[in-house]
Design brief:
The complex is a heterodimer.
Chain A: E1 3-5, E2 10-14, E3 19-21, E4 24-26, E5 33-38, E6 45-50, E7 56-58, E8 64-68, E9 73-78, E10 87-94, E11 100-102, E12 106-111
Parallel strand pairs in A: 2-12
Antiparallel strand pairs in A: 1-4, 3-9, 5-6, 5-10, 7-8, 8-9, 10-11, 10-12
Chain B: E1 4-7, E2 10-13, E3 19-25, E4 31-38, E5 42-49, E6 56-57, E7 64-68, E8 74-78, E9 87-96, E10 101-106, E11 110-114
Parallel strand pairs in B: 2-11
Antiparallel strand pairs in B: 1-3, 3-8, 4-5, 4-9, 5-6, 7-8, 9-10, 9-11
Chain lengths: 112, 115
């Protein structure tokens, strides 16, 4: 069965620190991969997505992610976080039937 | 452009009551989805509709029913609410073809409490 695993449940960083959130997936078919962000009290918004081609994907707000097929990973990175990046981050992979399977989420707290 | 509109935003039900959550999208997307979000459990798929006229069960369908009324609207019904259904419910829609799912657009959510 398809699944997504996010290893970090809660990450606490100081402003200007670098960020890397791990995401591993299992899916045997052609993968579409996504990172979503949910700010406190809001709905999920798309940060970036990978369909094919360049495995390094750039998204909004300075975020990027790298697809490593051999490791079944799609880690999210940002060189320098800001207090406004405090949110919950979800990795997702497409599944059979067009559904998205989401990871459990990683809560990011950035201290000013 | 409203995107995905969910109503209501908040609801409190008594155990055993019924209600319908409404969802409409104006992006001409063919696929629509209902998820519930619970702390520490991420988003779990309740039901989805890959295209108008079709619906399928997701990961946690028990206690729910859905109706894909037309291409725009996809409603979720709780026939007899239980406290375990206390959650935040999100509707989403997406454009997809045989190869790609182009990602979801989410509604703003419904916070449901069953007492």
């Amino acid at each position: 069965a398809q699944s997504v695993s996010q290893h970090n449940h809660h990450v606490i960083l100081s402003e200007a620190a670098s960020l890397e959130l791990g995401c591993n997936y299992s899916y045997g078919g052609t993968v579409n991969l996504f990172w979503y962000v949910q700010y406190p009290g809001q709905h999920l918004q798309l940060l970036l997505k990978y369909f094919s081609g360049d495995p390094l994907v750039k998204g909004i707000k300075g975020f990027e992610a790298e697809f490593i097929k051999s490791k079944f990973s799609f880690n999210l990175r940002k060189p320098s976080v800001q207090w406004s990046d405090t949110a919950e981050y979800f990795c997702a992979v497409n599944a059979k039937g067009g559904k998205l399977i989401f990871g459990q989420g990683t809560e990011l707290s950035v201290k000013p | 452009n409203a995107g995905v509109t969910q109503t209501p935003k908040f609801q409190v039900l008594k155990t055993g009551q019924s209600m319908t959550l409404q969802c409409a999208q104006d992006m001409n997307h063919n696929s629509m989805y209902w998820y519930r979000q619970d702390p520490g459990m991420g988003l779990r798929l309740i039901y989805y509709s890959a295209s108008e006229g079709t619906t399928d069960k997701g990961e946690v369908p028990n206690g729910y029913n859905v109706s894909r009324l037309n291409k725009r609207e996809f409603s979720l019904r709780l026939e007899s609410a239980a406290p375990s259904q206390t959650s935040v419910y999100f509707c989403a829609s997406s454009a997809r073809d045989s190869r790609f799912n182009y990602g979801y657009t989410f509604g703003s959510g419904t916070r449901l409490t069953v007492v």
